[in-house]
Amino acid sequence: MKTQRLFTKMTGPKMPGRKMTGRTAGLVAVGVAAALALTACGGSDPTQTSSPSADGGTTDAGAAAGGDAAGSAAGAADSGAAGSGAAGSGAAGSGAAGSGAAGSGAAGSGANTATGGQVVIGSANFPESQLLATIYSKALQAKGVDVSTKLNIGSREIYLNALEKGDINMIPEYTGGLLNWYDKESKATAPEEVYQGVQSSLPNGFTLLKMSKAEDKDSVTVTKETADKWQLKTISDLSGHAGEMVLAGPPEWQTRPDGVPGLKSVYGLTFKTFKPFSADASPVKLLTSNVAQAANVFTTDPAFDQAPIVALEDDKQMFAAQNVVPLISEKVATDQVRSTLDAVSDALTTDDLVQLNSAVSVDKKPVDQVAGDWVKSKNLG
Q1: Looking at the whole model, is its pTM more than 0.90?
Q2: What CATH class has 31-214+320-377?
Q3: What is the assigned CATH class of domain 220-312?
């Protein structure tokens, strides 16, 4: 049973999504050259807890911010000490979001008692969140639901406060980030366990809908050349090679449980040396210049669409799951809203997020256009 809890906290873990420390994510230029200049990974860090930007204004349904605004927020991510969006880590293996509890979307309750009303969808202050909010908005609008958006609200503590106050009643979220926010002591990493942990910890009156297979999480990434050379598919495959490899990551990875210590304790890997990221040394640049042979890159980084790199499967689930999921007030979670957003979650993949982020942050296309094209391509609107 849920206990009555408030979203707002005087202190708390770094917000799942973008963090104050670590992951600098500047996305620059076009094509592979742009990817080489990326400072971190894709459109978001699910563990965001930084204290950022001003509330975004209400827009018409689906009228999301354009590419420039989205692009400027892209780098707001850090990978943070709380563990990139996750409760102490990134994501569970391959993003295989279980269909069980996620499919139900119910907060452990029985009949749907939603009263309806306008759905007001907020977003955090980075492009991926804005894309997801706009996708939700356009899908709902296509089904005749009264919907508006408030984009670029800020970090988790800001937008969850807005959710509690009723300024918005829905937000795209990440399961591991939310679990770290509500239960930072949780050791859950598998998608279903993380989802259920969040669902049981939410304040009264709020629920998660179905989670997507799409995840924005930490990964250990190598170049395709390195993967082919040593036939690497999983992090475990690095055994026997790690001693020859420089590992690159945000500075806090040297002490984070899901960083260097975790790779040693969970996988038995000891790397030759550790190379911290910097403004002039992004993970992709370090990899492609062979300064590092393995690096922490978030799984929805546009670099995966631009550069010859590959994320190794987290076969021992060291990184907690970071599945994309709608967090919504039960008051507006009508059957129509649920079924529409469940269909979106069914269709959305991590590869989709990579391409969506690339379209906005690299190709500089407007969020509204990119989101609308995706909804149409999936026959959702």
Answers
A1: no
A2: alpha beta
A3: alpha beta
